[in-house]
Specification:
Layout (H helix, E strand, L loop, with lengths): L1 E5 L2 E3 L5 E8 L8 E6 L5 E7 L6 E3 L7 E6 L4 E6 L8 E7 L6 E2 L3 E5 L2
Parallel strand pairs: 2-11
Antiparallel strand pairs: 1-3, 3-8, 4-5, 4-9, 5-6, 7-8, 9-10, 9-11
Length: 115
C-alpha cells in the first residue's frame, strides 16, 4: 500500500488549496478514503471521508462548508479542496485508507495558513 500526498504549502487566511493523494497497492475503488490532520502539538483529527463510489462525502464540523472531498477511481486518487482556510487549519494532512484515522496513512503534506 502506498499513499502519496501532495499540494500542501503556505496559504493566506481566506485562501484556497487543493490537496491530492495518489494511491497504489490496493483496490482503491473498493475503499472508503479519508483525510486526517495533525496540528502542531495535537493528536490526529479526522477531517473528511468519501465512500468508495464517490457518492457522498462526510466532514468534521470544523471544516464543513469550507472543504470538499472528491475522488477519481480511474486515477486512484482522492482530493481535498480547501477554501476559506483559517489559521487553525494549519497541520500536516494525511491521506488515509479506510474510515476514521484509517488503517494506513501516507507521509503527509504540510499546510500552513499564515499572513
Amino acid at each position: 500500500v502506498r499513499l502519496l500526498e501532495s499540494g500542501g504549502g503556505l496559504v493566506q487566511p481566506g485562501g484556497s488549496l487543493r490537496l491530492s493523494c495518489a494511491a497504489s497497492g490496493f483496490t482503491f475503488s473498493t475503499y472508503y478514503m479519508s483525510w486526517v490532520r495533525q496540528a502542531p502539538g495535537k493528536g490526529l483529527e479526522w477531517v473528511s471521508g468519501i465512500w468508495s463510489d464517490g457518492s457522498s462525502g462526510e466532514y468534521a464540523d470544523s471544516v464543513k462548508g469550507r472543504f470538499t472531498i472528491s475522488r477519481d477511481n480511474a486515477k486512484n486518487a482522492v482530493y481535498l479542496q480547501m477554501n476559506n482556510v483559517k489559521s487553525e487549519d494549519t497541520a500536516v494532512y494525511y491521506c488515509a485508507m479506510g474510515y476514521g484515522l484509517g488503517i494506513r496513512r501516507g507521509q503527509g503534506t504540510q499546510v500552513t495558513v499564515s499572513s
